[in-house]
Amino acid sequence: MQKEDSQAIPRLARDFFTEAAGALIKTTLVDFPGRVASSFFLKGCNLRCPYCYNWALVDSSLAESTGDEKSDSGNLASLEEVFAHLEKRRNVLTGFVISGGEPLLFPHLAPLIEKAKSYGYKIKLDTNGTLPDRLEAIIKNPATAPDFIAMDIKTSPARYGLVAPHATQQTVSEMIDNLGRSIQIISRLPADSREWRTVLVPPLVGKKDIAEIAKILPADAVWQFAQFRNENCLDANYNGIAPYTDKETSDLVAYAKTMISGANLR
Question: CA 217 to CA 251: how far, in whole Å?
Fold first, then answer.
């Protein structure tokens, strides 16, 4: 029997190989700290953050109903296209970012990571922290363990119902517990291999929320803040919300820094 090529497409991904799986950013200098990388934003998410601008990835039915087959991140690509790009650029790029949506929902995440690693790429995984069991499984397997993990924290835990309006009170309570578990899991990684991220959305993140979030982060956390973009939001009402001013933003980040010294504005 002929030996299978080690560079062949992972077996579990073959059925999904030619279908549109997410938006591919071929080159990025900002998504993976210290690396020139490519980013893949996978479809599907278990949250509905009202300020999300990648709504075509979050809910494909919305994209189909509007005829919009792309997100802010670009045209949707298949695994076939992603692997071809990674192979072609392996001597130029050193990092591969897997984001979303929520990538831990992707049924072929493990073989996607394994394939990218086989090309020599360092892997960064972005997650919303609501799926700690899947996160733990990915980290524990040396073949799929990311080299860097970034976790988004949307608002203070008690207000997570605002980013999951479809969820029941019990589901939101479980989600809050899961956030804590994910933070504990990620905290076990070296400090230079992890970060937490919060978008400064005025209705969702104020001083009280920052104080509550700081309580659940490790003291050595790198906590990156980003300015809110009031355009192409999942909830159109958020397009009319003005972002914080530069002064307000600086004050909020400075306040966060009094509790977590690694707080910064990206």
Answer: 20
CA gap 42, 57 in Å, rounded: 7
Residue 150 in tokens: 């970034």
For the chain, where are the E strands, in sequence order? 20-28, 37-42, 70-71, 74-78, 95-99, 122-127, 148-152, 194-200, 222-227, 262-265
Decide if pLDDT at 185 tops 70: yes
Cα(63)–Cα(17) distance, integer angstroms: 21
Buried b (16+ CB within 10 A) or exposed e, 212-225: ebbebbbeebbbbb
Tracing tokens 């050595």 back to the chain, one arrives at: 220
Query: Is the per-residue pLDDT at 10 higher than 60?
Result: no
Model confidence pLDDT, tens digit, residues 145-179: 999 999 999 999 999 999 998 888 889 999 999 99
What digits encode the pLDDT tens for the residues 56-98? 888 755 544 444 443 334 478 999 999 999 999 999 999 999 9
Residues 103/129, Cβ–Cβ less than 8 Å = no
Measured distance CA(78)–CA(42) in Å, rounded: 10
Best CA proximity match to 227, nearest among 253, 256, 194, 208: 253
Does this model's pTM top 0.85? My answer is yes
User: Quick one: which of 108, 105, 82 has its CA closest to 16?
Assistant: 108
3-state secondary structure of 13: helix
> Nearest Cα to 210, choosing from 252, 168, 172?
252
The identity of residue 20, as a single letter, is A
